[in-house]
Design brief:
There is one protein chain. By secondary structure, the protein is mainly alpha-helical. Helices cover 70% and strands 1% of the residues. A two-stranded antiparallel ribbon has the order 1-2. Strand 1 and strand 2 form a beta hairpin. Helix 5 packs parallel to helix 7, helix 11 packs antiparallel against helix 12 and helix 16 runs antiparallel to helix 18. It is globular and about 75 Å long. The two termini are 19 Å apart. 50% of the residues are buried.
Length: 426
């Protein structure tokens, strides 16, 4: 089930990244020659803003990726004042709300207000883009920002509860995705060699292949998609991350998300670690990038750095840094417990698992019954058994039996009720 929330509305997820480059990223890299593309009004593949607008975009996106939300809002509102008929400022405001939501995506009560603002801002982007496209169907600005708006709107659906087992959910995703797919094809015709567009093409290739392999229910709805190839998709993302003028951050973020959560081999996790280090170094205020960094350290067996990074996350949650929410602390406590369990520090492991369980119940009933908390209680039993406290361990195993089955958790609990756990990990 771990892939379901990640791959829902595939087409819109892919389009979400590729249209962003026009004006959305703070630090352009590997600038392309400013050659004029015939018929598009583009130089170097993208619309060039004037110096004042470019400065606002750079300052605003730097603030946004460091989760300084109010500062970013101020910059993008100034951009709108300079050109109220251009969709860039409105889209960037919506993107600020997106980054307000991402660190809280699993806790509905914490993201609802930002979601309302996001929806309103996306509607404004679509309104302006549709006006431009009514006058000129090949208006590159209208096409790119409409694609972005459609993409992020569906990506929000993905983050906040897409049901990949529901045919109706796939119909909704497919309908909006078809429009987004047509837009990306049109944009590729207008700027066929641009590295920024490889972000969207890469996401299409990767997720199309993944969905065809894992979710037959989607094939009838997303039949318009090309077959896709995961290796080609990842290669496109790497190129975009290295060469794109504006889309580097988004492409690298997409890469660490895929390599961390979709791929299971050590080489992928080591690649992701390198990218996560660079992203977090560039944006040290971004809790999402630090979370991926911690997870990559853990996945590659660097428990020392994983421990220090998760500990830093807990400190920043306690300081109430922007984007460092209780859900991050909850996951961090679980990993700190698991690290100590692996290192044989059973007393401390049990303490961290206990804190994680308490915090899960504090956050809400969904978290208390989640897969994460199933593992928390199971491993708390392991840590107690390793201390010779089998009666206390049995109490934890019985809690696991009262919860949903996850990763064979119930059979493991039954096994260790009968015979104390004596392994080094499970």
């Amino acid at each position: 089930m771990k892939h379901l929330r990640k791959i829902g509305p595939l087409v819109a997820l892919a389009i979400a990244g590729f249209a962003l480059p026009i004006a959305a990223h703070a630090q352009p890299t590997d600038p392309q020659p400013e050659t004029q593309d015939a018929g598009t009004g583009l130089r170097g593949g993208w619309v060039l803003l004037n110096a004042q607008e470019t400065a606002l975009v750079r300052a605003g996106t730097n603030a946004m990726y460091n989760l300084r939300y109010n500062e970013a809002d101020t910059m993008f509102n100034k951009l709108i004042e300079l050109d109220p008929e251009h969709p860039a400022g409105y889209f960037l405001l919506a993107l600020v709300d997106w980054w307000r939501i991402v660190p809280n995506a699993e806790i509905k009560v914490q993201y609802e207000s930002a979601q309302k603002s996001f929806d309103s801002r996306i509607d404004k982007v679509l309104e302006i883009c549709d006006k431009r496209l009514a006058n000129n169907p090949n208006d590159i600005i209208g096409l790119f920002f409409k694609g972005s708006a459609l993409g992020y709107r569906s990506r929000l659906m993905l983050l906040t509860g897409f049901d990949a087992t529901s045919p109706l959910a796939w119909v909704r995703a497919g309908t909006e995705g078809k429009e987004a797919y047509d837009i990306i094809l049109q944009c590729q015709r207008l700027a066929p060699s641009n590295s920024d567009i490889l972000l969207g093409s890469g996401l299409y290739n990767y997720f199309s292949a993944l969905i065809n392999d894992k979710y037959p229910i989607a094939k009838s709805v997303l039949g318009f998609l090309p077959p896709g190839d995961k290796k080609i998709g990842l290669s496109m993302l790497r190129i975009s991350g290295q060469r794109a003028v504006y889309a580097g951050t988004e492409a690298r973020y997409a890469m660490i998300d895929i390599l961390t959560t979709m791929e299971e081999d050590r080489d992928s996790h080591e690649q992701s670690l390198l990218v996560a280090k660079a992203l977090y170094q560039q944006y040290p205020g971004n809790s999402v990038f630090e979370r991926f960094l911690a997870k990559n350290y853990y996945q590659t067996g660097d428990l020392v750095n994983a421990d220090s990074t998760y500990t830093d996350i807990l400190r920043r949650v306690q300081r109430r840094d922007p984007g460092y929410e209780l859900s991050l602390a909850w996951r961090g406590l679980y990993y700190l417990g698991d690290i100590r369990l692996r290192l044989g520090q059973y007393i401390d492991a049990a303490k961290y698992f206990q804190q994680a369980d308490v915090l899960a119940h504090r956050i809400g009933s969904d978290e208390a019954e989640s897969n994460w908390n199933i593992l928390t209680n199971l491993k708390m039993g392991y840590a107690l058994d390793k201390q010779g406290r089998h009666d206390d361990a049995v109490a934890q195993y019985r809690k696991v039996l009262s919860m949903d089955d996850y990763s064979d958790s119930r059979n493991k609990a039954k096994k260790y009720i009968a015979q104390p756990y004596n392994g080094t990990g499970d």
